[in-house]
Amino acid sequence: AALRLIPSPHAKTDDIRPSPNPSHELQRTLRALPNGEWPEVFHTLNAVRRLGLHHGALLEPHLHGVVRDVLKQSENLRSAVKKNAILTLADLWRGLGPTCDPELALVAPVLIKRVAESNGFLIDTAEEAIATIVDRATPRRALEAFICCSRSKNPQIRAETAIVVYKLVQRMGNRLRPNSKEVAKILEEMPLFLQDANPKTRTYGRHLLHHLLGAGLATEEELGRAVPAHVLKKALASTFAAGGHVGLPPDLGAAPGGGGALPR
């Protein structure tokens, strides 16, 4: 059947049903996604969502090219297409999970950038997409991808990166080990988080520091080698709750579809 030319409202994930002819839909998608006009692209993104959610084995051999084309559409001049592209990324991880891990290095900076846009109308959609990816990706691979954004020149991107890194560390739980490559990378970035000009970045840097100490992932001696002494002293003396009790922030919540909503 021909694609409708007038976009309908953005479909909810739970309302997307399997395709009656997924092989045909895949071939049409591969042709239309990179080259179609915007109404066709909008509906083609829905086809990608359907294939990712219900026909992952069929889509998997084409995943890298499809993700690349979806990211291209996330920069589309049409706001409806932009939003549907971000919804598509979330549904790819919902349907395919860690199979999408190799695409994290491409996807993480794009979504962090969207969340960091001060006047962006896509902030909530991008936050939910990140939360879904954090929930469905291999945590170690997601941590590697998102923590790279901490070196951005944009202070808001650095702040959102600190939040995502903290959430990933929480999710990894006892799978995160002392002296691991992941902890070493967090310690490497810790001085940047704790000394950032943005107070949100510093706050989540302190949350990370206290989590590492509380979970036995790093000692004060190890932190002292990574963080300037005066910065570490101030961070260790900080409090997160009224009454002077040092503690962790509240749970970061849950987003639709299984992810955790990121705090603002």
Automatic annotation (TrEMBL):
Region of interest called Disordered, as start-end residue ranges on this chain: 1-25
One GO term in the molecular function aspect is: microtubule binding
A cellular-component GO term for this protein: cytoplasmic microtubule
Q: Where do the TOG domain residues begin and end?
A: 22-250
User: Gene3D superfamilies from the xrefs?
Assistant: Leucine-rich Repeat Variant
One annotated GO biological process: microtubule cytoskeleton organization
The cross-references to PANTHER family, in alphabetical order and at most eight, read: CLASP (PTHR21567), CRESCERIN-LIKE PROTEIN CHE-12 (PTHR21567:SF87)
Its name, as the record gives it, is TOG domain-containing protein
The record lists the organism as Heterosigma akashiwo (Chromophytic alga)
